[in-house]
UniProtKB/TrEMBL annotation:
Catalytic reactions on record: ATP + protein L-histidine = ADP + protein N-phospho-L-histidine
Entry keyword set: ATP-binding, Kinase, Membrane, Nucleotide-binding, Phosphoprotein, Transferase, Transmembrane, Transmembrane helix, Two-component regulatory system
Name of this protein: histidine kinase
Native organism: Herpetosiphon geysericola
Record lineage: Bacteria, Bacillati, Chloroflexota, Chloroflexia, Herpetosiphonales
EC class name: transferase
Transmembrane segments: 12-35, 42-70, 90-106
Length: 438
């Protein structure tokens, strides 16, 4: 809008200048030749402005119109004051040539400006679209060059917090870890004038690397656990049989029979642990089938409600209205839900509620949330490790089996918990593509 207004002002200037100069020619006496020479030279101003503002065509057109308007006057001057018609004609020809040259130069400059502006916009769009942050350091000032850099570097760090040497490095900010690549910034002459820094959020890569390391540890542990479980089961069977035989013989001595019942109880607990270890080390092949997850969750909650009622805990079910489907092993999904719900039930107190819900984003999410005491942040990272438990009677294998089964289904699981807000188990599984339910 501003440019249009400016061009309109220049157009009025050009047209009014042409009219005034031409009027001066026709109103000035033919014998005042020096004045006419000055007026003739003034034509270069509006014609030059027109050529620069609107290009060669407009400039040449105005120059030709000026010549057509002026030459009759020049012929009249030649007849009344012996002024040279040839001189005036050559002057108009020069005016036309100047208009053409100025117009051509202006068009080239405009084209160069358009190319530069297009390149600037293109570079801006590229920087704005990059998933990495770009920043520069010039004259001891940090300049964030794209939105990603502005997002990653909040709050903006000081120069002392940034890497001081070229190459790859990592830095910790409030939002997490960033990978930084620094190199020299050069001007068009190749002289260093500062530094370029490229920032990348590597929290996801670190999480993936940690999951890979955990999977490797779990695989090795599973092999070890499977071997130990096989070796331990036979001796445990002998211990249990011997304990039962001893219990029969001590049936008349209750104070001694109590010890055999303790042995049997502990043997049973070890046997359950061994069964979990064997399940972890030798998982069964998944029997995948299309599952309407809302229907499965409704059946699961209906089955678990009596158990929850015994503990005075209510189950709340909320289902996604889109009726999501997944392709999974029904028994494995049921076991996942059972382990998560039992953990939530054990963490709950009478009068509290456990919320189980499904929702759809880019994946299916199943939430199991309690209102219990939560989990300390210090142990949250270990909660899916085998043998890790916070209960005296726990084996520490329930959540480990859940994590492994989720991974086998191509999903992920996370636990969001604080000591004051309970725990939220967030299970993510791939959705079944449209049309595949049948």
């Amino acid at each position: 809008m501003v440019k249009v207004v400016q061009q309109r002002h220049w157009l009025w200037f050009v047209l009014s200048s042409e009219l005034i100069i031409t009027a001066l020619h026709y109103l000035t006496s033919a014998h005042l030749l020096p004045y006419h020479s000055i007026y003739r030279s003034l034509y270069y101003v509006p014609v030059g402005v027109a050529a620069v503002m609107w290009g060669r065509t407009f400039g040449l057109g105005l120059a030709l119109v000026t010549a057509l308007v002026y030459l009759p006057h020049a012929h009249w001057l030649d007849a009344h004051a012996s002024n040279s018609l040839l001189d005036n004609t050559l002057e108009m020809a020069t005016l036309i040539v100047v208009a053409g040259l100025l117009g051509s130069l202006a068009e080239r400059e405009q084209q160069a400006h358009s190319r530069a502006e297009g390149l600037r916009v293109y570079i801006h769009d590229v920087l704005a679209s990059l998933p990495v942050g770009v920043a520069t350091i010039e004259q001891q000032q940090l300049k964030l060059q794209n939105p990603t850099a502005q997002h990653l570097l909040q709050p903006t760090p000081s120069l002392a917090q940034l890497p001081q040497t070229n190459g790859y490095s990592e830095m910790q900010l409030a939002e997490g870890a960033l990978a930084v690549r620094r190199s020299d910034l050069h001007n068009v002459e190749g002289q260093p004038i500062g530094a370029v820094l490229v920032f990348e959020d590597i929290r996801e890569q670190q999480a993936i690397a940690e999951r890979i390391r955990q999977a490797e540890r779990m695989a090795a542990l599973g092999q070890l656990a499977g071997g130990l479980a096989h070796e331990a089961r036979n001796p445990l069977g002998i211990v249990r049989a011997t304990s039962q035989l001893l219990g029969h013989k001590l049936a008349q001595q209750p104070q001694l029979a109590h010890y055999t019942s303790v042995i049997n109880s502990e043997v049973d607990r070890l046997d359950r642990l061994i069964s979990s270890l064997l399940n972890y080390a030798q998982p069964q092949a998944l029997q995948r089938q299309p599952l309407a997850i809302n229907q499965l969750l409704a059946e699961f909650v209906a089955t678990c409600e009596p158990l929850a009622a015994e503990h005075g805990v209510a189950l709340q079910l909320r289902l996604d209205p889109s009726e999501p489907w997944i392709e999974a092993d029904r028994d494995a999904i049921w076991q996942m839900l059972l382990n998560l719900s039992l953990n939530a039930l054990q963490a709950s107190q009478a009068g509290q509620t456990i919320a189980i819900k499904s929702l759809v984003a880019d994946q299916l999410e199943i939430h199991v949330q309690d209102q219990g005491i939560g989990i300390d942040l210090a142990i949250r990272e270990r909660i899916f490790d085998p043998f890790f438990t916070t209960r005296d009677d726990g084996t520490g294998m329930g959540l480990a089996l859940v994590a492994r089964s989720v991974a086998e289904h191509g999903g992920t699981i996370s636990l969001e918990a604080t000591p004051t807000q309970g725990s939220l188990a967030r299970l993510r599984l791939p959705l079944l593509r449209q049309g595949a339910q049948a």
